[in-house]
From TrEMBL:
InterPro entries: CheY-like_superfamily (IPR011006), EvgA-like (IPR051015), NreC/VraR/RcsB-like_REC (IPR058245), Sig_transdc_resp-reg_C-effctor (IPR016032), Sig_transdc_resp-reg_receiver (IPR001789), Tscrpt_reg_LuxR_C (IPR000792). The chain crosses the membrane at residues 74-96. Residues 140-205 form the HTH luxR-type domain. The keyword Membrane applies. GO terms for molecular function: DNA binding. One of its GO terms (biological process) is phosphorelay signal transduction system. Coiled coil: none annotated. Residues 2-121 form the Response regulatory domain. The keyword Translocase does not apply. This is Response regulator transcription factor.
Amino acid sequence: MRVVIADDHSFVRLGMRTFINTSSQCEVVAEADGVDSLMNVLSNTPCDLLITDFSMPGGQQADGLKMLNTLHRLYPAMPVILVTMFTGVATARAVLAQGVMGIVAKNTSASELPAAINAVRQGRRYISEFLRERLDNADNQLGESPLSVKELEVVRMLANGMTVSEIAQQVKRSVSTISKQKNMAMLRLGIRTDVGLFAYARDSGMAHSPH
Protein backbone atom coordinates (compact mmCIF):
# COMPACT_ATOMS: atom_id res chain seq x y z
CA MET A 1 0.00 0.00 0.00
CA ARG A 2 1.22 3.48 -0.87
CA VAL A 3 0.76 5.61 2.26
CA VAL A 4 0.80 9.40 2.72
CA ILE A 5 1.30 10.66 6.30
CA ALA A 6 0.47 14.13 7.60
CA ASP A 7 1.25 15.75 10.95
CA ASP A 8 2.64 19.16 11.86
CA HIS A 9 5.12 17.56 14.31
CA SER A 10 8.16 16.08 12.57
CA PHE A 11 8.86 13.57 15.36
CA VAL A 12 5.33 12.15 15.02
CA ARG A 13 5.85 11.70 11.27
CA LEU A 14 9.21 10.06 11.92
CA GLY A 15 7.61 7.54 14.27
CA MET A 16 4.83 6.72 11.84
CA ARG A 17 7.21 6.47 8.89
CA THR A 18 9.55 4.16 10.80
CA PHE A 19 6.73 1.80 11.69
CA ILE A 20 5.06 1.82 8.29
CA ASN A 21 8.27 1.26 6.33
CA THR A 22 9.12 -1.81 8.43
CA SER A 23 5.94 -3.42 7.16
CA SER A 24 6.38 -5.36 3.94
CA GLN A 25 2.83 -4.40 2.94
CA CYS A 26 3.12 -0.61 3.24
CA GLU A 27 5.42 2.14 2.00
CA VAL A 28 5.36 5.85 2.85
CA VAL A 29 5.41 7.65 -0.50
CA ALA A 30 5.03 11.25 0.77
CA GLU A 31 4.70 13.39 3.91
CA ALA A 32 2.93 16.66 4.71
CA ASP A 33 3.34 19.05 7.65
CA GLY A 34 0.04 20.89 7.31
CA VAL A 35 -3.23 20.94 5.42
CA ASP A 36 -2.06 23.06 2.51
CA SER A 37 0.99 20.85 1.91
CA LEU A 38 -1.22 17.75 2.26
CA MET A 39 -3.57 18.96 -0.47
CA ASN A 40 -0.56 19.67 -2.70
CA VAL A 41 0.95 16.22 -2.03
CA LEU A 42 -2.31 14.39 -2.75
CA SER A 43 -2.76 16.25 -6.04
CA ASN A 44 0.64 14.98 -7.22
CA THR A 45 1.13 11.62 -5.48
CA PRO A 46 -1.07 8.56 -6.01
CA CYS A 47 -1.72 6.77 -2.72
CA ASP A 48 -3.83 3.96 -1.25
CA LEU A 49 -4.14 5.30 2.31
CA LEU A 50 -3.88 8.62 4.15
CA ILE A 51 -2.81 8.66 7.82
CA THR A 52 -3.26 12.18 9.19
CA ASP A 53 -3.61 14.33 12.28
CA PHE A 54 -7.00 15.97 12.81
CA SER A 55 -5.99 19.57 13.64
CA MET A 56 -3.09 21.03 11.68
CA PRO A 57 -2.26 24.60 10.62
CA GLY A 58 -3.16 25.37 7.06
CA GLY A 59 -5.12 28.18 5.44
CA GLN A 60 -8.85 27.76 4.97
CA GLN A 61 -8.76 24.07 5.92
CA ALA A 62 -7.31 24.46 9.45
CA ASP A 63 -10.56 23.15 10.93
CA GLY A 64 -10.33 19.36 10.96
CA LEU A 65 -13.91 18.71 9.87
CA LYS A 66 -13.55 21.11 6.95
CA MET A 67 -10.34 19.33 5.91
CA LEU A 68 -12.06 15.93 6.04
CA ASN A 69 -15.03 17.25 4.08
CA THR A 70 -12.68 18.50 1.36
CA LEU A 71 -10.74 15.22 1.29
CA HIS A 72 -13.94 13.19 1.07
CA ARG A 73 -15.18 15.36 -1.81
CA LEU A 74 -11.90 15.28 -3.78
CA TYR A 75 -10.82 11.70 -3.00
CA PRO A 76 -13.99 9.73 -2.12
CA ALA A 77 -12.32 6.33 -2.58
CA MET A 78 -9.22 7.10 -0.47
CA PRO A 79 -9.39 5.59 3.05
CA VAL A 80 -8.37 7.91 5.89
CA ILE A 81 -7.02 7.01 9.34
CA LEU A 82 -6.86 9.79 11.93
CA VAL A 83 -4.06 9.68 14.51
CA THR A 84 -5.34 12.24 16.96
CA MET A 85 -5.48 13.58 20.51
CA PHE A 86 -9.19 14.42 20.60
CA THR A 87 -11.36 12.32 22.88
CA GLY A 88 -14.81 13.82 22.35
CA VAL A 89 -17.74 11.63 21.38
CA ALA A 90 -19.38 14.40 19.32
CA THR A 91 -16.20 15.00 17.33
CA ALA A 92 -15.74 11.25 16.76
CA ARG A 93 -19.29 10.93 15.43
CA ALA A 94 -18.75 13.88 13.11
CA VAL A 95 -15.50 12.54 11.61
CA LEU A 96 -17.05 9.10 11.13
CA ALA A 97 -19.91 10.81 9.31
CA GLN A 98 -17.27 12.25 6.95
CA GLY A 99 -16.27 8.71 5.96
CA VAL A 100 -13.14 8.32 8.10
CA MET A 101 -12.18 4.63 8.29
CA GLY A 102 -9.95 4.70 11.38
CA ILE A 103 -9.44 6.74 14.56
CA VAL A 104 -6.28 5.99 16.54
CA ALA A 105 -5.26 7.80 19.74
CA LYS A 106 -1.79 9.33 19.54
CA ASN A 107 -0.79 7.88 22.91
CA THR A 108 -1.60 4.34 21.72
CA SER A 109 -0.64 4.72 18.04
CA ALA A 110 2.41 2.42 18.29
CA SER A 111 0.23 -0.50 19.37
CA GLU A 112 -3.01 0.35 17.56
CA LEU A 113 -1.86 1.70 14.20
CA PRO A 114 -0.95 -1.78 12.84
CA ALA A 115 -4.42 -3.07 13.73
CA ALA A 116 -6.03 0.02 12.18
CA ILE A 117 -4.09 -0.39 8.92
CA ASN A 118 -4.98 -4.08 8.73
CA ALA A 119 -8.65 -3.35 9.37
CA VAL A 120 -8.80 -0.64 6.72
CA ARG A 121 -7.01 -2.88 4.19
CA GLN A 122 -9.86 -5.34 4.71
CA GLY A 123 -12.47 -2.62 4.29
CA ARG A 124 -13.36 -2.43 8.00
CA ARG A 125 -13.46 0.55 10.32
CA TYR A 126 -11.15 0.79 13.31
CA ILE A 127 -11.75 2.94 16.40
CA SER A 128 -9.32 3.16 19.34
CA GLU A 129 -10.49 1.09 22.28
CA PHE A 130 -10.88 3.99 24.73
CA LEU A 131 -12.93 5.99 22.22
CA ARG A 132 -15.03 2.97 21.24
CA GLU A 133 -15.95 2.55 24.92
CA ARG A 134 -16.94 6.23 25.18
CA LEU A 135 -19.08 5.95 22.05
CA ASP A 136 -20.78 2.83 23.40
CA ASN A 137 -21.42 4.48 26.77
CA ALA A 138 -22.79 7.61 25.13
CA ASP A 139 -25.10 5.54 22.94
CA ASN A 140 -26.39 3.77 26.04
CA GLN A 141 -26.85 6.93 28.12
CA LEU A 142 -28.02 9.55 25.68
CA GLY A 143 -31.34 9.54 23.93
CA GLU A 144 -30.95 12.93 22.25
CA SER A 145 -29.32 13.49 18.90
CA PRO A 146 -25.67 14.56 18.84
CA LEU A 147 -24.75 17.89 17.31
CA SER A 148 -25.08 18.12 13.57
CA VAL A 149 -21.89 18.46 11.56
CA LYS A 150 -22.63 22.16 10.90
CA GLU A 151 -23.35 22.86 14.58
CA LEU A 152 -20.13 21.10 15.55
CA GLU A 153 -18.23 23.12 12.95
CA VAL A 154 -19.55 26.39 14.45
CA VAL A 155 -18.65 25.34 18.01
CA ARG A 156 -15.11 24.34 16.92
CA MET A 157 -14.52 27.67 15.16
CA LEU A 158 -15.85 29.65 18.13
CA ALA A 159 -13.59 27.67 20.45
CA ASN A 160 -10.61 28.53 18.27
CA GLY A 161 -11.15 32.26 18.53
CA MET A 162 -13.37 33.14 15.58
CA THR A 163 -16.37 35.46 15.91
CA VAL A 164 -19.85 34.64 14.60
CA SER A 165 -19.38 37.10 11.72
CA GLU A 166 -15.96 35.65 10.82
CA ILE A 167 -17.43 32.14 10.78
CA ALA A 168 -20.30 33.29 8.58
CA GLN A 169 -17.86 34.81 6.11
CA GLN A 170 -15.63 31.72 5.99
CA VAL A 171 -18.38 29.09 5.60
CA LYS A 172 -20.53 31.37 3.43
CA ARG A 173 -23.63 31.28 5.62
CA SER A 174 -25.50 34.25 7.10
CA VAL A 175 -24.69 35.66 10.54
CA SER A 176 -28.22 34.80 11.68
CA THR A 177 -27.79 31.18 10.54
CA ILE A 178 -24.50 30.85 12.44
CA SER A 179 -26.11 32.39 15.54
CA LYS A 180 -29.01 29.94 15.32
CA GLN A 181 -26.62 26.98 14.93
CA LYS A 182 -24.61 28.18 17.95
CA ASN A 183 -27.78 28.57 20.03
CA MET A 184 -29.10 25.16 18.93
CA ALA A 185 -25.80 23.52 19.87
CA MET A 186 -25.96 25.11 23.32
CA LEU A 187 -29.57 24.01 23.72
CA ARG A 188 -28.78 20.41 22.75
CA LEU A 189 -25.82 20.34 25.14
CA GLY A 190 -27.67 21.98 28.02
CA ILE A 191 -25.12 24.83 28.09
CA ARG A 192 -26.24 28.40 28.82
CA THR A 193 -23.08 30.51 28.62
CA ASP A 194 -20.25 31.06 26.16
CA VAL A 195 -17.78 30.13 28.90
CA GLY A 196 -19.57 26.79 29.30
CA LEU A 197 -19.50 26.26 25.55
CA PHE A 198 -15.74 26.90 25.41
CA ALA A 199 -15.21 24.51 28.33
CA TYR A 200 -17.19 21.83 26.50
CA ALA A 201 -15.19 22.40 23.31
CA ARG A 202 -11.90 22.20 25.21
CA ASP A 203 -12.90 19.02 27.03
CA SER A 204 -14.05 17.49 23.75
CA GLY A 205 -10.71 18.21 22.08
CA MET A 206 -12.14 20.80 19.68
CA ALA A 207 -9.82 23.69 20.58
CA HIS A 208 -6.40 23.66 18.93
CA SER A 209 -3.60 22.82 21.35
CA PRO A 210 -0.90 25.51 21.55
CA HIS A 211 2.37 24.45 19.89
